[in-house]
TrEMBL record:
Protein species of origin: Neomoorella glycerini
Gene field: cheC_1
Listed Pfam families: CheC
Coiled coil regions, renumbered to chain: none
GO molecular function: hydrolase activity
Top EC class, one word: hydrolase
Residue ranges constituting the CheC-like protein domain according to the UniProt record: 10-45
InterPro entries for the chain: CheC, CheC-like_sf
Name of the molecule in the record: CheY-P phosphatase CheC
GO-annotated biological processes: chemotaxis
């Protein structure tokens, strides 16, 4: 069994909260730089194969801005934020 197979609802809630805090900080910084209000939605959290990520953000041909985070340790993984 892979490490990511062991994720439960509590783990996903924690990942969602971490994403929400990070996105909130980024939105605050961007609003400060632009001098305008920024709206954001609560991030989603889930586990899926890399090949399926494009289906979440649009078509393969669509340009997308994305930030990639590499996680090391007992549960090595990648986190993508678009």
């Amino acid at each position: 069994m892979e490490t990511w197979d062991k994720l439960n609802a509590l783990h996903l809630d924690a990942l969602r909260e971490i994403g929400n805090i990070g996105a909130g900080n980024a939105a605050t910084a961007l609003a400060s730089m632009l001098g305008s209000r920024i709206q954001m939605t609560v991030p989603r959290a889930g586990v899926l194969p890399l090949q399926e990520i494009t289906a979440l953000v649009g078509y393969e041909e669509d340009p997308v801005a994305c930030v990639e985070f590499t996680v090391s340790g007992p549960a090595p993984s990648k986190i993508f934020s678009s």
